[in-house]
Structures are given as structure tokens and as C-alpha cells.
UniProtKB/TrEMBL annotation:
Keyword annotations of the record: Signal
Protein name in the entry: Lipoprotein
Cleaved signal peptide residues: 1-21
Organism: Deinococcus multiflagellatus
Domain of life: Bacteria
Length: 326
């Protein structure tokens, strides 16, 4: 069939070349006019519309960041099925007003997740892409450790003879897809390693670190910052923040100097780290001296084109030993 496309059920499913390779193309959504995304207080990461919020009886506030990305329920189910998973209806949520929300269990041989839709539009459910991709990477049979991500829009997940194309463009797409292998890297370091994605990356606060990577345009890198170790149950655990970004024409990548694990509202107090000391490896990062440091150790890791099992093993050599936010 060569490089031609077969359109099945509205999804691009391709048999490519002579090696039985297959490609699934899913359409990433990030434009819902006149909608404010809200975060229920009891969820660390959730994006709900008014109907879902009413059904769950949760309060909402407006995000600083308004550029999250989503997959339709149809594309989410197709993605799991394509990679060898199963989709089953687990239960449903009913509100007093008669609103009904079906809840589906999506599973692989060694991992399963029961997720609420992030929002509904014209009767169709949509799921937060960042959470979906993180879930996929939990199962090494579905997405082996040798898999890679390439491109900055569209983005291609290459896993053995299967290829998934996330069709779309923009910084939010890059963040929501490429943050997954970074989260997986920290998970490999063990349960006593605490890490958070800096979701303020999409809020565009003015204080930013612009770091020369030396990589070609459209490469994707991660900035990892080590903060003060956290004391938990009598021992101290290393504490990291990370953010992914696309490399621009001049070889630089831009990151927020304000850190938060939540998409907080304007006016909330953020952790500002104005000065970074760039180190040559992840293991070279030292714990910050205080809970609100003016300077912290950081490292730049290449994510695009790197097998997931190798993410974090090699850092980029910084062209300058420090970065001062501007």
C-alpha cells in the first residue's frame, strides 16, 4: 500500500511499506469557543465544564493557563485499541438534574485507568491529552521503552511497528505530549523521588529563562529544576520541577521562571526561581538551600528522538553556566 492513507471511521489508519507498519492519526483539540476551563478543588489535574462541575458538585475557578489539549472519546478509544488495549464501560455518574456521565475503563495488560472526561461539547466527551499519554506510557507492552516521540506539531509516537500521529500544532500540544516521557523518567527513579510538571509554562508569565540548547528548530527539550528536598515520614526526598518546550530557530528554548504544579489563578503567589545554575547531568543536581530559593540547580534534557528508556541519561552541555530570568 506504500505511503497511501486508508480512512477508517474518520481516523487515518495506514498500512505502510513492506514491514507491516501501521499508523493511527488522531486529531488533537484545543479550541472550544466561549469556554472557560475550571479546576475542581478536589482534583489535582482536572478540567471540567459547567455541566460536569454541577454533576460533581465541585467549585471552579478560572485558569491562568487556557491552552490545554484534548482528544475526543472516539479518538481516545481508537488509540487504546490500536495499541492493544481494551475499552469497557465501568459505571456512570448521575446528577440530581438528570445529567448522566458514562465512565469508561481503558486497560492494557499491566495497567488500567478509569477516567472522567475532561469536558463535553455538543454531547461528545473529550479527555485531557496530557493524562492520556501518561497513562499509555505506564504499560511497556503497549508502548515499549524503546519508543520515541518526534516532531513538534504534528507529533509522532513511534512504537515498534506502530506509529501514532497526534495531529495539531502549538506549545500546548508539545507540553501535553512530551511531558509524559519525563514523568516516566522520574517514575523510574523510585517512589521517594517527588516531581511535578510546571504547568505555569502555558501561562506566559513575563519572567522567563531563555536557554541556548544548540539543537535544531522544532527539537523538544525539558528543563529540570531541583528544589529543596522534602521531609516525608522522617526522611528527605529529592524534589524536582520540569517543563518541556520546543526549540526555536535561534536554538533557544523558553521556560517560565514561575513554578506551580497547579494551573493557578492570577494573583496567587507563585514560586519564582530567577537564577539557574545549569549542570552537565541529572545526577549532578544539588538540592536547593531553602524552600523559596533565588537560585537553583537545573539541567536541560533532550526529549524528542530519544528512546524513552534513555531520557535523562544524557544532558545537553549548556553554552552558559547560568540562566537569569528576564
Amino acid at each position: 500500500m506504500g505511503a497511501s492513507l486508508c480512512l477508517l471511521s474518520g481516523l487515518a489508519l495506514t498500512a505502510c511499506g513492506g514491514h507491516n507498519a501501521q499508523t493511527l492519526t488522531v486529531k488533537v483539540q484545543n479550541r472550544f469557543p466561549d469556554r472557560q476551563f475550571c479546576e475542581p478543588e478536589s482534583f489535582e489535574v482536572a478540567v471540567a465544564d459547567a455541566a460536569l462541575t454541577k454533576a460533581l458538585d465541585l467549585g471552579c475557578w478560572r485558569y491562568d493557563r487556557q491552552d490545554f489539549t484534548f482528544l475526543s472519546e472516539k479518538d481516545t478509544d481508537a488509540l487504546y485499541t490500536f495499541l492493544g488495549g481494551k475499552v469497557e464501560k465501568a459505571s456512570e455518574l448521575n446528577s440530581a438534574s438528570g445529567f448522566t456521565l458514562p465512565i469508561y475503563k481503558r486497560s492494557f495488560p499491566t495497567f488500567s485507568a478509569t477516567r472522567l472526561p475532561a469536558l463535553r461539547e455538543a454531547g461528545e466527551a473529550f479527555y485531557y491529552l496530557g493524562e492520556t499519554v501518561r497513562d499509555l506510557l505506564h504499560d511497556p507492552q503497549a508502548v515499549p521503552a524503546a519508543s520515541t516521540l518526534t516532531g513538534a506539531g504534528p507529533i509522532t509516537l513511534q512504537t515498534g511497528q506502530k506509529r501514532v500521529v497526534f495531529e495539531g500544532t502549538g506549545d500546548a500540544l508539545v507540553r501535553d505530549v512530551y511531558s509524559a516521557p519525563v514523568a516516566t523518567m522520574f517514575r523510574r527513579l523510585g517512589p521517594q523521588t517527588i516531581s511535578h510538571e510546571n504547568v505555569q509554562g502555558g501561562a506566559q508569565h513575563p519572567a522567563r529563562h531563555r536557554i541556548q540548547t544548540g539543537l535544531p528548530e522544532h527539537s523538544v527539550v525539558a528543563l529540570v529544576i531541583r528544589l529543596e528536598d522534602l521531609q516525608i515520614l522522617g526522611h528527605f526526598d529529592p524534589h524536582y520541577f520540569y517543563e518541556v518546550a520546543e526549540v526555536q530557530k535561534d536554538g533557544r528554548a523558553s521556560f517560565s521562571a514561575n513554578l506551580s504544579k497547579e494551573a493557578v489563578v492570577s494573583g496567587r503567589h507563585l514560586l519564582l526561581v530567577p537564577r539557574l545554575k545549569l549542570q552537565p547531568s541529572l545526577t549532578a543536581l544539588r538540592a536547593a538551600a531553602t524552600a523559596r530559593p533565588k537560585e537553583a540547580d537545573a539541567v536541560i534534557l533532550q526529549i524528542s528522538g530519544v528512546p524513552f528508556r534513555e531520557v535523562g541519561q544524557k544532558a545537553l552541555n549548556p553554552s552558559s553556566p547560568t540562566s537569569v530570568a528576564r
